Amino acid sequence: MLYSSSPLHLRWTDWPQAWLGRAMNFGLPVTWAAVEETLDVPLISAFLLASRCLTFSKDTINACQDMKDVKFADVKSTALLFGSWIRPLALFATSFIASLVITGLWASGGSGFFVLSVCGTALHIAWQVAMAKLADPRSCWDTFTSNAKLRGLVWAGLATDYAVTSLNRTSTA
């Protein structure tokens, strides 16, 4: 966790994970605009918000496993700020899902996106919130590494929708 945000953020704010979410997801709007060849600001903003919320929640879970080291190093973190209180993480995870829904609606997403990316992600996050024990480093690690499955669900929904849309464009051309 100590390397997830800049040393400046770890010293000055209790929210270094929020700055990490901002930095880690900067490429998403650029990539979206390049693939879609358009700059739909509300759509890209919703997608970016979703990604930032996910980064924030998963990095906070990751930081929970290092709380003793963080206290010893005298740096700040949302893991220390929240402690074992998981509700703020559930709020950010819910915001992630809501932002996915908004993104899907604005982008005219299909059933693949809503079933895999939205519903699959919602079920996975509900499982994470129910199972994560933020005071137990092993539980935090298991929850953090399960995010690979979550990213896979989001990607599968996007890829399915993109493939279906491409097939529809090809068949109507």
From TrEMBL:
GO molecular function, one term: 4-hydroxybenzoate polyprenyltransferase activity
Transmembrane parts of this sequence: 89-107
Protein's membrane topology: Multi-pass membrane protein
Domain of life: Eukaryota
Main subcellular localisation: membrane
GO CC terms of this entry: mitochondrial inner membrane
Keyword Membrane: yes
Pfam families assigned: UbiA
InterPro entries, sorted: Prenyltransferase, UbiA_prenyltransferase
GO biological process: ubiquinone biosynthetic process
Subcellular location: Membrane
Cofactor: Mg(2+)
Keywords on record: Membrane, Transferase, Transmembrane, Transmembrane helix
Glycoprotein recorded as keyword: no
Family, per entry: Belongs to the UbiA prenyltransferase family.
Protein name, per record: UbiA prenyltransferase
Species, as recorded: Exidia glandulosa HHB12029
